[in-house]
């Protein structure tokens, strides 16, 4: 269960309106790697977690914080859209041609659909969807197959990725504006994404130590291991040879196959048999 | 440019048809973390890469291999669908009630739309889409902002995640069947996903060493660093306190904030001004 | 900003597992009218609201409650999936044919992707997306055009609809199970959806009284009013004539047009002019 | 079955081309609340209706009219796109910088994909989809559960919402242009949306009178009624207290809970049991 | 403008309910190649057409007919869903195990969302969307570039494809049932799809005769014609050599390139320049 | 299995950067009819094909070539985005107002998400998805129903359509730029699309000769043939009468029905029976 405080977690007020920046900030709200993705992934993973309380709790803490980030960015976007001219302004444009840039570059749905507030989309207006979310479940203690360590570690790796991609985008957004109010909020998000990267990396390393670095840990005897450390060269670039004879994180050595051959057959699926249908009238 | 060999990279032939398993294998083909996602992410990243030849090449090698995996799984699905009764079989059902299970559980579009071959969807028939793909670009040598190291490392982390999530799902698929032909192919995929995890982890570690562990590396002086190593406790679980005073991978120590307070204001966006529109007729 | 309590708002524990019911409950979680839609619509509307504190607050209260409902239903689904056989069970099926029903009717992604926990989809596995959400903005005090009353009232009407559609579906779900644990949770949701319907109806009526029943209120002098109270009969059914001479909620009388005629021209858009392009080489 | 008249229902011809306005009008055609949504919702509801002829007929009348609105807006968009320069016009831009605005703000797919005619998308090019449509079925006479009144009333509420959201957007579109031809069509749509709001409100009120205001009407004895009239205060705003002791539309009084407590348990789903799988080889 | 007749274009009544067949028929309603796709493609093309009245009219005639087909299939699905047990029926299942098949194979949203009527989706519940529709515009008389013939012919080819794919699926549906009522409707659809294939083929042939077989007709002098009749052999199959020296429909002869070489350079995009950003603070 | 050559199939280098043209080229990459659609349709059809080696091979050859086209266009887009100013450039804009056009018209995700390289979307940022792909299966030798000829021919017709729509769009793109580097690549694509149209037309004609022109060929005795050659006039246009008495490609004559009547009943689906549910508690 949740409770809401009206005050924001951190400042989210620009020095002045800027509808183009509002559009760009939609990426941090409703893009593939935006705050909605963090919020729903961490909450879902936290609710699904049945294992170590430590990991369950940090997932729920962080997921709950992300709702506040969704709130902050939504607020910032609304401030940035204040005074945006959504109605026709022919005479004003003649006086100030920079309005033309705004007319061409603003998201028309900001005014038309959302009344100059944030939508839950990316800057191109694509609806955020849960195809961006990852939560692979509660099989934590499935000791027989130990699929476990796999899925929790796999989700932690997703979370590190989410925070990394998001911090790259927030960095790019930072350089796209000089508004000190916008930058103030972005500096806070940068810091929190540092923390979230580091905490999930910490969890990831603990899990790697416990279950092994390859996810999931218990399938290594089952796989066709003769292909598990081979760099296969399917293109004419020479760069990947640099990995040859290097030691992989699991302690084994990479080999290099210059010219990997097809080992399977040419497939021969048969046409659908007509005999099957001989009771049709 | 690409060339195609008709023989498969590895065996992809089941011992016998099984349309329910065919449906499940669609996850490895057209699901969020399936082979289509690997193929288009690595190829896109490889084509976008302008930096170290080593990384560009391993991306293109691996992306090219993934097309072969798309081919293998498509072939396997077509074999598994052979002889599936898509037409009404009332009398046959009476003789063999297990056909009823097939009737209820088979993807109806396998027969109706794809003529008993694979579709490019997940097991629930959701179309694969490029919202699953990640490729964050060629800013590799952007020395001033060094956004660089960030985006290449962020993409490598995505790739490790892709291979981890995929290997968890392939492990689950392995346990969902006893067909030795299907298992043979899955054992090969497990091995290749081991290799791909390890090679991307290797690249990731090299990049972390060069640019720092927090992505992107050059924003640490800009961020509000007083919040960059603080575990904030937004839920009443006590588990996340376990991280307190631990050393993060960047060498600094995590602190713990039991009761994080709202530091921002209550937002007061103003209603859209009517003055703006005073030239309307 | 938000805080999370680990205890659920209300009981969400079934008497026994039932993976088919788990699948059906996905509608209440990630369907068009499910709790995700309520949560993100009310929070977005609340954050966008600049007007009467009363409405802003009830939107934020209710949006925050809906996060707890997302949590409850996610938990219930995980409980219902406990012990679901996702791996092949040929011998068990022979002993208990009802497992065949489960095999055919269960969402394969529950096991394969989510490790027997909830996904953020509907029962057919379609990803929830923000195309289901409505929030039309902060133009509340736009006195000149008074678009205002319109959009807040329009959003309240959406909210009443959301709670009505959701309560119809929860009622249907109630009759689809006899599990007293599941029913206990549904009885609570039914009650809350009563409250939410009634509170939004209350707000809606107040706004209708203030601004008029037709949304938005200030365009009535602009519209072509000769067509604003005419039932036009475009089909050969006779039922709609029953509205003739009845008094509409704005106090005017409906008229009936038996055979509405086309009043516009036959369109004659011209082909794209080739003159425009005469500087092409 | 349908017949088509080439003449439009009403005028749909602008005074002059305007490709930016063409893009904005896409909202009224292929947006979430555009005419496609009205058309397919009302037709689907009408075809599904088994009950009172009066409601079935007005749904089919209105759905049929909406096809004509889709036609009118498609025609208007094609007129507005006439003469749009989709080919490179460097020298023309030098003479008339306003072309630059057009180049930046026009939907590139209008020229490239649709040859300067309408697409079935919103202004950001998102494909219209049936996730926007609502039609909840024919259970009208299901007397035992009386789910009935619920779903028809719920659909009528959706229809009132559709017409309200659409009229807000058409009002905004009206103020975004001064073209008298465009405005003429919008004035007609405003009038029809008045009629459609009023007719669906009429139907809604009749149904509320017959079955009660809370949808569906027959679950009130089943729900946990102690929570059905309680305003729960989950945020620190004080506004929602204004509803306290007010009379809800069903005649009961709202109470106010200042600090709602979690009434459920902390969930303890168990990890997936490994015993289940002990027949794996 | 449109008018609606309540009587259906043709019979659409099954001999008995069959909810699995109802699910499969969704393909013909809301699948990629279903009637919605025909309806919206032909209407859009007809409204966009500015050229030969003959083609404009047949597009509008056929598009209007397709609305009636949407109506017929929606009706058939509702009939097929009559009496479907959507509520729990434990005791009935014990008496009739075939109900178990229905429970597993029925679309759960048919009951839960649509109250036992049709949804606008495919059998896997994927929402129909306008990404399936094609309408390429009104450049018919663009004589200078003659892009014209191209786009009208390209659309006619799409229409022939639509009717062909749809008729394949309707044929498959025909064999999936023995219900004479369902088959009666399908026999009618098969006939109409014959007519629609033949009429669009007729139009296609006339346009090919007028503008040439390669679309669009006027770019043949611009293209790099040395590559315009070469079968390039990118795979190790030998089958495509069979086209060698055959005469293409434009009268020229195909040649065969056994081993096509890469003619382009290795791409060398440069990293984003940092100089660009030297005004950042 | 596939191998990759780093050199491109053909030149893909512009004379100078142009981020607006980069955006437009996204249509040829990730639009409905772009190269991704060709690639995945032909490969899927080739893998599914069980029949004539000739057709299987040309599908795989062409599908493999299309991967190279995806590569070329991705490369071209990255070149066109070189030096695009994604960071704020207020002073530079003052010096060169044409930058304002770029700011408004560029895809913001090109810089923000993809670091100035291609995304797998259309110019409006809509994710490419497999709902654009067609592959109808391997029923080639299904002699009894001969559904066969149908689906292979239907897919060939799709392929001809794909190449036609794509060539129309590439022609439009050609006229949207004067950059000789871009045009050089487009001239090559135009030539290849000529070849692909002609080869698929050849295959289509052979299949028509073998199985008949109406797809699928073996349902003609089953359909209600009295409706299979009738032009039905559902609109008041007179154009379609021009087909009357013309000979269709199957040798039969079209007739014309001026005023087609509804032949079906008014549907009377019954409300869901309440008796079914009488075991509810």
UniProtKB/TrEMBL annotation, chains A, B, C, D, E, F:
Write the protein's name. Answer: Manganese catalase
Residues given in the record as Mn(2+) 1 binding sites? 35, 69, 163, 196
Q: So which residues are the signal peptide here?
A: none
Q: Which cofactor names does the annotation list? A: Mn(2+); Ca(2+)
Q: Where does Mn(2+) 2 bind?
A: 66
Binding residues annotated for Ca(2+), in chain numbering: 57, 61, 233, 235, 237
Region (Disordered) residue spans: 260-281
Q: Which family does it belong to?
A: Belongs to the manganese catalase family.
Does the keyword Calcium feature in the UniProt annotation? yes
Alphabetized, the UniProt keywords read: Calcium, Manganese, Metal-binding
Q: Which GO terms describe its molecular function?
A: metal ion binding
InterPro entries (alphabetical): Ferritin-like, Ferritin-like_SF, Mn_catalase, Mn_catalase_C, Mn_catalase_dom
Q: How is the cofactor bound?
A: Binds 2 manganese ions per subunit.
């Amino acid at each position: 269960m949740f409770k809401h405080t009206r005050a924001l977690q951190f400042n989210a007020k620009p020095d002045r309106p800027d509808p183009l920046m509002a559009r760009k900030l939609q990426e941090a709200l409703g893009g593939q790697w935006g705050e909605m993705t963090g919020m729903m992934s961490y909450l879902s993973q936290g609710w699904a977690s049945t294992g170590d309380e430590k990991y369950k709790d940090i997932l729920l803490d962080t997921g709950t914080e992300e709702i506040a980030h969704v709130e902050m960015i939504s607020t910032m976007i609304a401030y940035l859209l204040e005074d945006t001219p959504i109605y026709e302004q022919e005479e004003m444009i003649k006086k100030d041609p920079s309005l033309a840039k705004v007319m061409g570059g603003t998201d028309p749905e900001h005014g038309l659909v959302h009344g100059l507030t944030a939508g839950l989309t990316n800057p191109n207006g694509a609806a955020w969807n849960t195809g961006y979310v990852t939560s692979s479940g509660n099989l934590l203690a499935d000791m027989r197959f130990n699929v476990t360590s796999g899925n929790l570690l796999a989700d932690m790796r997703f979370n590190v990725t989410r925070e990394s991609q998001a911090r790259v985008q927030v960095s790019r957004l930072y350089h796209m504006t000089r508004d000190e109010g916008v930058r103030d909020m972005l500096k806070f998000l940068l810091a929190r994404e540092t923390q979230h990267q580091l905490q999930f990396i910490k969890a990831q390393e603990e899990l790697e130590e416990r279950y092994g670095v390859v996810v999931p840990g218990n399938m290594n005897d089952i796989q066709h291991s003769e292909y598990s450390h081979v760099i296969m060269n399917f293109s004419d670039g020479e760069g990947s040879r640099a990995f040859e004879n290097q030691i992989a994180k699991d302690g084994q050595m990479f080999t290099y196959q210059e010219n990997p051959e097809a080992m399977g057959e040419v497939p021969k699926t048969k046409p659908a048999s007509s005999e099957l249908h001989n009771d049709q009238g």
